[in-house]
Amino acid sequence: MTATTAATSVQGGSQWVQTGPLSFRRALTTAAERISEVPELTIPFPGVWELTYNVRTACTGGNQKALWVSTWLCKDGVPIEGSEALRGRNGPDNEVVQDTGGQTVLVALQAGENVTLHGRYSGEGDAKVLSGGDGRTSVVAHWVSPGF
């Protein structure tokens, strides 16, 4: 589970860093936590970066209560505004819902800043973040421009 870096032409806007492919299964808690199975991305140089992430989740509820999974990206431990995504269920007992969701945001970043994935769940039941051959969890940072 290491971050993969691919680079071609900075002038052409084709510099990026990404995680993956990853294989893991992690139970979430109701406390906000870093999903450490997804490596942090270290930004190689300053500019505006398009950050995109996808998270495969699995939720099993109990007692016909709602269960929601929240995910977001952080820059050096601080949540990145607009990166929040919410998935969940509100259905019968023991119903299992799996999906993949995420967000894309433009963010001005400095060289050496780190981007990490975080998550938590709220409600009654069990929630997991997964990544494997049938659904991936990943984070990608694609350089867009030298700045606003």
Give the arrangement of secondary structure elements.
Elements lengths: L2 E4 L9 E4 L4 E4 L5 E2 L6 E2 L4 E15 L4 E10 L2 E2 L5 E6 L5 E14 L4 E10 L1 E7 L6 E8 L3
Antiparallel strand pairs: 1-2, 2-13, 3-12, 4-11, 5-11, 6-10, 6-12, 6-13, 7-8, 7-9, 7-11
Q: Percent of residues in beta strands?
A: over 45%
Unreliable residue runs: 1-13
Supply the helix-strand structural class: mainly beta
What's the total helix number? 0
Number of strands: 13
Distance between the termini: 33 Å
What labels would you give this structure?
mainly beta; 0% helix; seven-stranded antiparallel β-sheet; six-stranded antiparallel β-sheet; 148 residues
Describe the structure.
The protein is mostly beta strands and 148 residues long. The chain contains no helices and 13 strands. The strands form two sheets. Strands 1, 2, 3, 6, 10, 12 and 13 form a seven-stranded antiparallel β-sheet that branches. A hairpin with a 2-residue loop joins strand 7 and strand 8 (78-79). It starts with a strand and ends with a strand.
Give a quick precis of the structure.
The protein has strands at residues 3-6, 16-19, 24-27, 33-34, 41-42, 47-61, 66-75, 78-79, 85-90, 96-109, 114-123, 125-131, 138-145.
